[in-house]
Amino acid sequence: MTALSVEVVRVFTDPDGRFGNPLGIVAGHLVPPADRQRVAAALGYSETVYVDDPATGTLRIYSATGEMAFAGHPTVGAAWYLHHHGHPVESLHVPAGEIPVSHSGDLVAVRADSTWGSTWTWHQLATPAEVLSSDPASYSDGHTFLWAWQDESAAVIRARAFAPAMGVVEDEATGSAVTQLTARLARDLHVIQGAGSQLHTSWHPPTHAAVGGRVRPEGSRTITI
After folding, report:
1. Domain span holding position 197
2. Are residues 86 and 143 located together in one domain of the fold?
3. Does residue 113 belong to any structural domain of this protein?
4. In a domain, 109, yes or no
5. What is the pLDDT of residues 20-30, one digit of tens each?
6. Predicted confidence (pLDDT) per residue in 92-128, tens digit
7. Is 110 a member of any domain?
8. 29-54: average pLDDT
9. 166-189: per-residue pLDDT in tens?
10. Mean pLDDT of 154-177
11. What confidence tier does 14 reach under pLDDT thresholds 50, 70, 90?
């Protein structure tokens, strides 16, 4: 048995550092590829990032159910983490491809092809109240994204995401989904998701979108593998 140190950050917090989606970050050389899914499941986050080469931003992303070619909150969180640990990379490298990274004030953003990521079933509801009152138990399969305009003129959306196919009843903040929504609506968005996480997107036609937000460190935890 070996003790594994895992860094934890919260991705897409609000301006006061509240909310955000927890992310586990692990030095890749500490966990063989064959064990990475098992460790991700043991950590219990929606995704865990393994940093295989911090100098080049080479990553692998795992959920509890398997490897992911791309995901939004892990890449934003990893970009912030690398920058704050002496590796200010201009791009990340994941199985789906190269992902440019940008910084603006306290926001970190990644730009990706909006066709990447999981396949979502989309439900536009009439009001934010309907989104907030929805029962996750009603969405027990696949990946479901509920959204409503909170302020259409200002492009502010209230959203929730359910991903039982990945073993996640409700995902607090889902970067790849909002890049897809940005492409569907063909406009920049400010998405408030889950309990109050905040994601900011920009549309880069014909197929790309950027998603960014604030990241806060949560310290480290140790698990036995």
Report:
1. 121-211
2. no
3. no
4. no
5. 999 999 999 99
6. 999 999 999 999 999 999 999 999 989 999 999 999 9
7. no
8. 96
9. 888 999 999 999 999 999 999 999
10. 94
11. very high
What one-letter code names the amino acid at 141?
Answer: D
**Integer CA distances (angstroms), 111 to 19, 48, 53, 142, 151, in order:** 23, 19, 20, 25, 25
User: Quick one: 50 and 78 in the same domain?
Assistant: yes
- What is the C-alpha end-to-end distance of the chain, expressed in Å? 6
Which residue carries 């603006």 as its tokens?
Answer: 104
Angle, helices 72-83/175-185, rounded to nearest 10 degrees: 120
Task: Let me know if residue 143 belongs to a domain.
Answer: yes
* CATH code: domain of residue 168: 3.10.310.10
The one-letter amino acid code at 59 reads L
CA distance 153 to 60: 38
Q: How many domains does the chain have?
A: 2
The secondary structure of 8-58 as a DSSP string is EEEEEE-TTS---EEEEEEEGGGS-HHHHHHHHHHHTSS-EEEEEETTTTE
Are 15 and 72 within one domain?
Answer: yes
